[in-house]
């Protein structure tokens, strides 16, 4: 039985690895040229947590590393809205405009505001040093057991 499954599994695994290699290589190269910046997360209970981020990574990456409650179920592949967050008005234009796909996914999020964004689409630059990201009080989560994915 295993013998029959193996070729298909290997082919699928090779396809997955082939897709991941450029992404992993890009992340390693980015680490060599990234700069440290500070990000302030406003948590659902109103408290604030200042954490260290790096340029060229996303707000979701920083949140995951810093135990900020953002699920990010699709791990940044624009297939969910579990990384919904709010920007401050004055910070909204500091990021690239949302894509049509991001707007579509934001329609699925709870309590959307004018400054809503998906954290996985917010790529940090030096100009974002000190920005505040608010985590909504209600989030759309995919995990039923409270699991928060880490990548
Ligand atoms: S993690 Fe799924 S859209 Fe951001």
Ends distance = 32 Å
Q: Given this structure, which CATH class of the largest domain is correct?
A: Alpha Beta
Main pleated sheet? 5 strands, mixed
Strand order of the largest sheet: 2-1-5-3-4
How many extended strands? 5
Query: How many structural units, i.e. domains?
Result: 2
Helix content: 25-40%
| Large-scale geometry | globular
Number of helices: 4
In terms of DSSP E residues, the strand content is 15-25%
Bound molecules: FE2/S2 (inorganic) cluster
* Overall mean pLDDT: 84
Protein name: Ferredoxin/adrenodoxin
GO molecular function: 2 iron, 2 sulfur cluster binding; electron transfer activity; metal ion binding
Organism: Anaeramoeba ignava (Anaerobic marine amoeba)
Keywords: 2Fe-2S, Iron, Iron-sulfur, Metal-binding
Task: Kindly describe this structure.
The protein is of the alpha+beta class and 151 residues long. It folds into 2 domains: 1-33; 34-134, Ubiquitin-like (UB roll) (Roll), CATH 3.10.20.30. It contains 4 helices and 5 strands; from the N terminus they run H-E-E-H-E-H-H-E-E. It has helices at 2-33, 59-65, 89-92, 100-106, and strands at residues 36-42, 48-54, 84-87, 116-118, 131-134. Strands 2-1-5-3-4 form a 5-stranded mixed sheet. Strand 1 and strand 2 form a beta hairpin. The radius of gyration is 17 Å and the shape is globular. The protein starts with a helix and ends in a 17-residue tail after the last strand. The structure holds FE2/S2 (inorganic) cluster (FES). FE2/S2 (inorganic) cluster (FES) binds at residues 60, 72-76, 78-83, 105, 118, 120.
């Amino acid at each position: 039985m295993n013998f029959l499954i193996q070729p298909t599994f290997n082919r699928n695994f090779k396809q997955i690895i082939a897709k991941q290699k450029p992404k992993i290589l890009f992340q390693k190269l980015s680490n060599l040229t990234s700069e440290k910046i500070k990000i302030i997360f406003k948590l659902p209970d109103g408290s604030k947590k200042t954490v260290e981020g790096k340029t060229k990574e996303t707000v979701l990456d920083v949140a995951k590393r810093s135990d900020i409650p953002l699920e990010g179920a699709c791990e940044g592949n624009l297939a969910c809205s579990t990384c919904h967050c709010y920007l401050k008005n004055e910070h909204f234009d500091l990021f690239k405009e949302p894509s049509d796909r991001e707007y579509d996914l934001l329609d699925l999020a709870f309590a959307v505001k004018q400054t809503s964004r998906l954290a996985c689409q917010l790529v940090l630059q030096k100009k974002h040093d000190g920005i505040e990201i608010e985590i909504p009080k209600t989030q759309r989560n995919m995990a039923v057991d409270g699991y928060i994915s880490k990548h």
